Amino acid sequence: MHKYGVRFKMNLALPILTAEVENMERFEVLKKSKFFAPISEVTRKEIARLFTEEKFNRDDYIFFEGDKPEWLFIVKEGKVKLVKHSDTGKDVILQVFAPGEMFGETALFDHQPYLASAQAMEPTVILKLSRQDFLRFFGRHPFVATEMIMQLGRQLQEAHATIKSLAVDRVEQRIANILLKLADKLGINEEEGVLLNISLTRQDLADMAGTTVETAIRVMSRFTKNKVIKSQGGKILILNLRSLREISIGK
Questions:
Q1: What is the pTM of this model?
Q2: Predicted confidence band at 238 (pLDDT cuts at 50, 70, 90)?
């Protein structure tokens, strides 16, 4: 009886232990977030308990353009792209979100439908916070609103820069700017240069630059020929950041 009693107690403890581990993992993800990192550890632990997790395969949609916003999302693992679908069937990738980054929060305030779709670029784990819990949390911690406003401001600036680039920059400049942004967000310093820790298809690059796949291939081939970049293990290695920056400003 004693042996079975001990085993029974251990089994009861397993769900509690698992929940605590999961909560600590969420806490660590929030520490990496530009929004949640500045708040106190106590407050961060409080909100970490309110998040749930959901897994997505590559190309799965987290939400679609036109969906009613009910969740705030943070990438725990993987990568997510924000995609705008046009009437002509052409897609434009507006942003790419990496672990620790938040998305979908803008629509939570006015409760208007999402203006773009969010899609997993690889196997991805997402942390989700319901709109109700999100608003209740703000009610208890109004000072957090200041950081949220700053976060929204950063996203608006990035969106404005993307729109301006699509309107006036040459394709070479647009692709150079995209690679520089990805290097800043996902770059890993290596002996030869900066490796972009994301597997991008030519279609992804074309959608991010607002151009055709054929044009994206020609530009990337030119960059490779000029030893600005090269392919390494299915990813892009930037060999010459200086040249890429010069291309991005039209030199």
A1: 0.80
A2: very high
